Amino acid sequence: MSIYQTIAGNQRYRFDGLKALLAAASPARSGDELAGLAAESAAHRIAARYALADVPLTDFLSATFVPYEEDEVTRLIVDGHDPAAFAPLSSMTVGQFRDWLLDPRTQTAELAAVERGLTPEMVAAVSKLMRNQDLIAVARKRQVVTAFRNTVGLPGRLSTRLQPNHPSDDLRGIGVATVDGLLYGAGDAVIGINPASDNVPNCQAVLQMLDELRQRYEIPTQTCVLTHVSNAIELIGRGAPTDLVFQSIAGTEAANSGFGIDLALLQEGYEAALSLGRGTVGSNVMYFETGQGAALSAGAHHGIDQQTVEVRAYAVARQYKPLLVNTVVGFIGPEYLYDGKQIIRAGLEDHFCGKLMGLPMGCDVCYTNHAEADQDDMDLLMTALTVAGVTFIITVPGADDVMLSYQSTSFHDALYLRSTFDLRPAPEFEQWLDGMEMLDGKGRLRDTLASGRPMQRLIGGMQAVTDGR
């Protein structure tokens, strides 16, 4: 194990290995304090960053964060490393890597070229040396484009997940929330529902209702019930109209075991979804969610700080070429991200790190009601993420998820972001909105209450679909 040292304020600081160094260099957050990994003081944290800046990137290729023999995520990271892609960076320290990322000459092509040469730990390390504006500036350069029934991640676009959750999975209630979101131009990333009852027949009923509504109006989007990957495989076997296979993932084998998954099961779900061939413009069929604190909450973090172990989850995600990945940044609770400042920082970190790992990164800009955060904090985070080129955000009616009991962002928030930054939805979805007479001549959303026609058509279709059940 390498020992790292530096002197700050006439005091020598010693860090026993990269794992300890990265933990001490992390911005303050409650989860690392809970785990006993955080820096002891601000001076200790700054000293760790000075030491980290001088660490050669090659040190990460020999460091062991979780033993190779004990952890399949580690094996995935090590075995998947591309020395040729790493070669342009091989002589750099972490600090020099930061400078290279911020160099105006480094753009999306250069970032994409080195993607497979980066380990999650390298990416986490460089993020710890960056201010929030640095995270925004670099993430904005990296474009990641994926496709299924529409194309997500193109420049000048901001997509949304329409999340019509219902506390009893009532099909009419889900249908009403879906129509509400569509009338605000939401839903091009996915119409995705967290089921209140995670049983296969219930999930199948919701999937069928959404698919019938989608087909009735030829909506160029994808639907998903966010059930366990094993349920998705069974649904596919039953012939349910399954577009995307969803799963929450984490950065260690033990944490994934807590979710009831391993890499083999993810591969099975990936292959099952691919076999259906339901995509029309692309074949990205997976949807993953992550979040800082997941591994720690399962007692499966192996002494790694929560942000670094989070980035290891992104190595899992990119293995399956997902259509969508998002961090549910404030959902796990204040035990891991205490207040608005910590949530904002974590959201920007996750987006930056996901983009460097080559992921179509979105964010559920959210918090639980017992966190020291409010919607003003969410306004700042969703605005900063939009500047950073976030692929998509979650949108729920009124920003209040009545099933999961947490606060997120609303259909109206997406309108604010698109209007303020002159952004549009996915091109295929935008064409559909125009065909439904929901856009004006300048591509802006019409007042659908004034004309009434789109609302009447969609509500009529929703009633026909749900009444048939």
UniProtKB/TrEMBL annotation:
Gene Ontology CC: one annotated term: ethanolamine ammonia-lyase complex
Job of this protein: Catalyzes the deamination of various vicinal amino-alcohols to oxo compounds. Allows this organism to utilize ethanolamine as the sole source of nitrogen and carbon in the presence of vitamin B12.
Keyword tags: Bacterial microcompartment, Cobalamin, Cobalt, Lyase
GO biological process terms on file: amino acid metabolic process; ethanolamine catabolic process
Main localization category: other
UniProt-listed HAMAP family: EutB (MF_00861)
Matches recorded under PANTHER family: ETHANOLAMINE AMMONIA-LYASE HEAVY CHAIN (PTHR39329), ETHANOLAMINE AMMONIA-LYASE LARGE SUBUNIT (PTHR39329:SF1)
InterPro entries tied to this protein: Aldolase_TIM, EutB, EutB_dom_2_sf, EutB_N_sf
UniProt-listed Enzyme Commission number(s): 4.3.1.7
Cofactor note: Binds between the large and small subunits.
Gene expressing this chain: eutB
Subcellular location: Bacterial microcompartment
Enzyme class: lyase
Protein name: Ethanolamine ammonia-lyase large subunit
Pathway in which this enzyme or protein is active: Amine and polyamine degradation; ethanolamine degradation
Cofactor(s) annotated in UniProt: adenosylcob(III)alamin
Gene Ontology MF: a single term: ethanolamine ammonia-lyase activity
Protein family membership: Belongs to the EutB family.
Presence of keyword Hydrolase: no
Binding, adenosylcob(III)alamin: 195, 247, 297, 403
Catalytic activity: ethanolamine = acetaldehyde + NH4(+)
